[in-house]
Write a structure and sequence with these properties.
The chain has two domains: 91 residues; 273 residues, 4-Layer Sandwich (Deoxyribonuclease I, Chain A). Helix content is 36%, strand content 18%. The chain is built from ten helices and twelve strands. The strands form two sheets. A six-stranded mixed sheet has the order 3-4-2-1-12-11. Strands 5-6-7-8-10-9 form a six-stranded mixed sheet. Strand 3 and strand 4 form a beta hairpin. The longest helix has 32 residues.
Length: 375
């Protein structure tokens, strides 16, 4: 009897690792494709999307242990889950190399460098940084893109020339970028080429479901139409979607009521729901745009999320997944390392290179994408 019990315990212990591995493999697949589910229909789905990279790391750790311990069933389960999740892995962490990127045109005038950057109002609201020369603007000028799409580019309606941290750069900025649009709503642009601009979607001045109010009318997205050196017409759409509002601080104006604020989880749930409707509005603007189109901005959501999938649709190409390399996060605060800024494109243009730049003093890092405009 004692021998029988010992045998059953050993047998149960033998399969414990396989069971844990199988559960992790199934969760990895679920996290990989949870973005197909509307958060308003199943609220855990967007949290599962955020858990994809941690789950991928866990599965790789289990794979190493399975190989070391020669647990063939566990190896097979992990290999199958990785194969099924591979399309999502390639979006989060593309394997592109210089060999499989498109050839760079010899004529550099046919290359358009586009940067998207949430600049956090150039730290205008942060006393410890607001009077120092802006590291964010220095990063932009050092990178020398042709076009820069800015989110949170406004400083409470104050002209950039009056912002202390930007004054040391204003002469160079005006010289290098003669075409500039600055808005109170935060969506702004500097360019080496002339353009016309107009807002997309209806004006928004109502309190959001999070209780957040911008204090002035604003638009979800803005379009910039420009004619490139080769005569090609191009539209660029800039947007910024609802933040998670992980940190409300003591500012009473962003609370749902004067005496209460929702929990972090509740705030995230509301943000997911709000971004769902906003994504549909951005997608409608994309559908009404010309063929040659670049869409970029602060999505406040990760690759393969429901928001990402709605905006990307079946016609847009993710520049980072197309020509970027490795896992590149663009948000750098609160211990979170997610790529929530994106560059999508379509039409007679081709992405050549994509870079995630580090530096500046914003809570975001910029993406810089080089396009061949004579495809």
């Amino acid at each position: 009897m004692s021998y029988s019990n010992t045998y059953r315990r050993k047998k149960k212990k033998k399969w414990t690792f396989e069971i844990i591995t199988a559960v992790a493999a199934l969760l990895l697949i679920a996290c990989a494709y949870s973005g197909d589910i509307d958060p308003q229909r199943f609220f855990p789905a967007p949290f599962m999307v955020l858990a994809f990279m941690p789950m991928l790391i866990l599965v790789f750790v289990l794979l190493v242990l399975a190989v070391l311990w020669r647990r063939w069933v566990a190896i097979a389960a992990i290999a199958l889950s990785l194969l099924i999740s591979l399309p999502t892995v390639k979006i989060f962490m593309p394997f592109n190399t210089s060999e499989n990127r498109p050839p760079v045109p010899a004529d550099t005038t046919l290359i358009l460098k586009v940067m998207t950057y949430n600049v956090l109002a150039f730290n205008y609201n942060e006393p410890q940084l607001g009077n120092e020369p802006s590291k964010t603007m220095k990063l932009i000028l050092d990178s020398n893109p042709d076009v820069v799409l800015l989110q949170e580019g406004s400083c409470r309606g104050v002209d950039w020339s009056e912002v202390p941290s930007l004054k040391p750069y204003m002469a160079e900025l005006k010289s290098r970028y003669p075409y500039t649009y600055q808005s109170n709503e935060g969506l702004s642009m500097i360019s080496k080429y002339p353009f016309t601009t107009f807002p997309l979607g209806e004006c928004r001045n109502a309190r959001s479901v999070l209780g957040y109010n911008r204090d002035q009318s604003s638009h979800l997205a803005r379009a910039y139409d420009m004619q490139l050196p080769n005569g090609k017409q191009l539209r660029i759409v800039d947007f910024r979607l609802q933040s998670y509002h992980l940190s409300f601080g003591k500012n009473m104006s962003v609370r749902v009521s004067p005496d209460a604020k929702p929990s972090p989880i509740e705030r995230m749930k509301r943000s997911f729901a709000l971004r769902g409707s906003d994504a549909a509005a951005v997608r409608a603007a994309i559908d009404a745009s010309p063929a040659n189109l670049i869409v970029c901005g602060d999505m406040n959501d990760v690759s393969t999320s429901h928001t990402y999938r709605v905006i990307k649709g079946h016609d847009m190409i993710d520049a980072w997944a197309d020509v970027g390399r490795g896992y590149a996060y663009t948000y750098n605060r609160h211990g979170l390392r997610f790529r929530i800024d994106h560059v999508l494109y379509r039409g007679d243009i081709t992405a050549l290179n994509a870079h995630r730049l580090a530096g500046g003093s914003s809570d975001h890092y910029p993406l810089l994408v080089e396009f061949d405009i004579d495809n």
